[in-house]
Specification:
With about 400 residues, the protein is mainly alpha-helical. The protein is built from 20 helices and no strands. It has a single domain, classed as Sodium:dicarboxylate symporter (Proton glutamate symport protein). Helix 4 runs parallel beside helix 16. The mean pLDDT is about 85.
Length: about 400
């Protein structure tokens, strides 16, 4: 067990938590360890996505099928994120975690969230869509965004497929490069315990246990909603697929622990793509569905946004009738698509959502700044499981799923 990555990361996470409680000042200085690990993985995401998508899509040699897979993925993303938003809105209205707080924003220090509120107004839907197209081909790989890489990858794959036999040497080269980058990912994962230690130590040392106690009801509410969503919604989908949800969670336990420690799903993107291929999903489906889902299939982020938005309304005594909450639901369906898998992005989207709704004070996000990283533990976990389930659903829908491999590894 000691040699297994998930156990090493778990021990490192616990060590970081203890250091944060005992030596907060020292623990806060561990932040570079977590940041460096995330940077190492993000450095590899562009090449891994490019090689996987190009090899899978060009290998299909059928661009109509590519379009069909993409359309099915988008349909699934919209369906499942809508379910997540509805579940969260119903649950937070029933549990009322913010009721009775009677927060007066004049007594709250909002200077710490000024940067988030400023960034929130810089990107709307149009800007988000425009950002998918990079200014240069190489530029798609230099900003750490997944969608521009996916865009140029599909274009390159389409052109390569059109070359037919003449494109085969390039396709073989891309396949070799893909294997090289996956080997590099394996090397980088040896540093995961250090990254987990640094990220957890900083979180606890910087924000402390006091903020956790003060907003414990909100934390418990989001964790409960997330557990319910995974168990009921994903459980039902897995049952339809003939998959055991618990075996699936065990299959990706390394990635779950890493994501929990770093609060970033991007840290496990390359490994998840590898594992889904091993489960029997066609490479082309994995290459299209998983990277796209990192911006459009954020089920956990939807749970977080809906829960926290209504919580802030309750805490500041801002009345919200059914009509206003339906407007919030519509806004969240758009704003949630702009949240990447990077730690902290959901907080910026939260500020943007409040700004778009208008009725809830944007400055109220200062109430949850201290516990955002803890709340992110829940949302990133759900996002990760959602990526795996989405790939399995689309692969099954497309007839691109090896049932024998699936049954052997995670079957019921």
């Amino acid at each position: 067990m000691v040699k297994q990555l998930w156990f090493q990361v778990l021990l490192a996470t616990l060590a970081g938590f203890v250091l944060g409680l005992c030596k907060p000042a020292l623990a806060a200085q561990m932040k570079p360890l977590g940041d460096a690990f995330i940077a190492l993985v993000r450095m590899l995401i562009g090449p891994v996505v490019f090689c996987t998508v190009v090899h899978g899509v060009a290998g299909m040699n059928d661009m109509r099928r590519v379009g069909r897979v993409a359309l099915k993925a988008i349909v699934w993303f919209e369906l499942i994120t809508s379910v997540a938003l509805l579940l969260a809105l119903v649950a937070v209205n029933l549990l009322k975690p913010g009721a009775g707080m009677n927060v007066d924003l004049h007594t709250v220090d909002v200077s710490a969230v000024a940067d988030y509120t400023a960034r929130a107004h810089k990107q709307g839907v149009v800007e988000f869509l425009q950002a998918i197209v990079p200014s240069t081909f190489v530029g798609a790989f230099t900003h750490g965004e997944v969608l521009p890489v996916l865009f140029v990858s599909v274009l390159f794959a389409a052109a390569l497929a059109a070359l037919g036999e003449r494109g085969q040497p390039v396709l073989r080269l891309v396949d070799s490069l893909r294997e090289v980058f996956f080997r590099i990912v394996g090397i980088v994962m040896y540093t995961a315990p250090l990254g987990a230690f640094g990220a957890m130590a900083f979180t606890v040392g910087r924000f402390g246990a006091g903020s956790i106690m003060a907003l414990g009801k909100l934390i418990l509410t989001l964790y409960g909603i997330s557990a319910l969503f995974v168990a009921v919604v994903f459980g039902a989908v897995c049952a339809w697929l003939g998959v055991s949800l618990w075996r699936l969670l065990g299959y990706i336990r390394d990635e779950i622990v890493i994501v929990a420690a770093t609060t970033s799903t991007e840290t496990v993107l390359p490994r998840i793509m590898q594992k889904l291929r091993a489960l029997g999903c066609e490479e082309s489906v994995v290459g299209l569905v998983v990277p796209t889902g990192y911006s459009f299939n954020l089920d956990g982020t939807c749970l977080y946004l809906a829960t926290v938005v209504v919580f802030l309304a309750q805490a500041t005594n801002t009345p919200l009738d059914v009509g206003q909450q339906l407007v919030i639901l519509a806004v969240l369906l758009l704003t949630s698509k702009g949240a990447a898998g990077v730690a902290g992005a959901a907080f910026v989207v939260l500020a943007g959502t409040l700004g778009a709704v208008g009725s809830i004070p944007v400055a109220s996000i200062a109430l949850v700044l201290g516990i955002h990283r803890l709340l992110a533990e829940a949302l990133t976990f759900v996002n990760l499981v959602g990526s795996c389930v989405a790939a399995l659903v689309v692969a099954q829908w497309e007839g691109a799923l090896d049932r024998d491999a699936l049954r052997r590894l995670v079957g019921r």
